[in-house]
Amino acid sequence: MRRVKFKVVSVDRKGNRNSAFASGKYNLNYPKDSIVRAGEETLGVAVFQTRKRAERFIKNCFALLPLQIIRVRPVGRGMIVTLVCDPSTEFELSTFYNKERGFYCTKISPPSGTIFYPAVEVIE
After folding, report:
1. From CA 7, how far away is CA 109, in angstroms rounded?
2. Three-state DSSP class for residue 6
3. Following CA atoms 89, 92, 97, 103 in sequence, which dihedral angle do they give, to the nearest 10 degrees?
4. Average pLDDT of 91-112?
5. How far is CA 82 from CA 11, 64, 116, 121, in A?
6. Span 49-76, pLDDT tens digits
């Protein structure tokens, strides 16, 4: 059985847990006991290797947002990347992934301990 990883999600007023920093068609919902698959053209579902790294990310960067850490089990082979798109609006993400139009978003290094998987199984 694969080791548990940790996903930072935003929680809306209805209690829905969604991608914390992706919008539009890139925003995924993370209901308990489901398998969430990333879009084929994307890097994958970003998770942290440890809860401590996820907590540090929230504390250092986004302490005022309604974020939550959930436990997930990775599905597929993980990938470590060196650059991600920031900010992560639907337009900027689309241009980041569409090489024909070029890259119109600012690229940054992902937070330390981030791994991208094709899908995750939501445990809690």
Report:
1. 17
2. strand
3. -160
4. 74
5. 27, 27, 11, 24
6. 999 999 998 887 766 678 999 999 999 9
Q: How many domains does the chain have?
A: 1
Asked if residue 18 is part of any domain, the answer here is: yes
Rounded-to-integer distance, Cα 18 and Cα 8, Å:
9
Does some domain include residue 27? Answer: yes
Q: Which residue's structure tokens are 């809690």? A: 124
Cα–Cα distance measured from residue 28 to residue 119, given in angstroms and rounded to the nearest whole number: 11
List the domain range (segments joined by +) for residue 29: 5-80+113-122
In a domain, 102, yes or no: no
Reference 26, options 9, 10, 44; nearest CA is 44
99 vs 116, residue with greater confidence? 116
